[in-house]
Amino acid sequence: MNERPLNPITAEHIEAYRADGVVCLRQMFDAEWIERLQQAALEVAADPAAHGLTGPSHGAMISVSHLWHKPGIFRDFVFNSPAGEIVGRVIEADNVQMFHDHLFRKPPKSPSIMQWHADHLWPFTGTMIPNLWVALSPVNEENGRIEFVAGYHRFCIDTGSRFGPAGDGTFRFPDFETERGNPDFPFRFVTWDLQPGDAVLFHVDIPHYSKGNDSEMLARTGLAMRMIGDDCYWCPREGLMPVQGMDLLSQPDGVHPEPGELLPLIWRRPEDEPRAFTPCKEQFA
Ligand SMILES: O=C(O)CCC(=O)C(=O)O
């Protein structure tokens, strides 16, 4: 099972992520990782509560998180796959910590729609809070591939907009379904068909959506891995999702989370490479 990315992370990947806040990464994980994760996903689907926490979107779709806390393939994938390196190199971090994983499986004919949202429930501020969504099945238009609003993270960063408790309470997304038909909408809708072993990496501020699975035969399965990089700080506010096992409200506001058992360091840029991350004064203001 590969420990380094199966294909190189290129300057184009880095630039696409910087500009669009989302990038498609082809064939990053080998067949053995994928087969073992596919098998484990079936075991989770058969008995979700035995493996992790079921989320509000659990029902017609299998939606189970915190799988990596138990010994097994999900945990091995965090510590021994190239997931951390892939994320660190694309987002230009020097250190990557694991935070949260989440399996999403839409069985054939599942009507579950994941409405437009960004991952604004995480208990952090900052910009390096990405989601690496690894395809464990073929993913296409029919079975519910994920769509994204490319570039929207720039608007959120430039205007300080984040909804929910991490924001000021006034920010709302536009109705993206209406904006699809608006030729003057300044952002692009993007999506990719994926094969097992491909992944999409997206920024915390990128709105995303997936429709139901219309396929008669083909389940759509992805493993979302949420990580944090150097530019990520505690946001100890009521209503945000705590790191399981930690008291969120007693964490230091605006301070980078210390690596530890619940937020382990899973990748560090090699010492002989130039640092990628330069802290800005404002980040610590
Ligand atoms: O798998 C999906 O359709 C939705 C994934 C998602 O919303 C997420 O990973 O945050």
TrEMBL record:
One Pfam family here: PhyH
Coiled coil: none
Gene Ontology molecular function: 2-oxoglutarate-dependent dioxygenase activity; iron ion binding
Source taxon at top rank: Bacteria
InterPro entries listed in its UniProt record: Phytyl_CoA_dOase-like (IPR008775)
Protein name: Phytanoyl-CoA dioxygenase
Protein species of origin: Novosphingobium barchaimii LL02
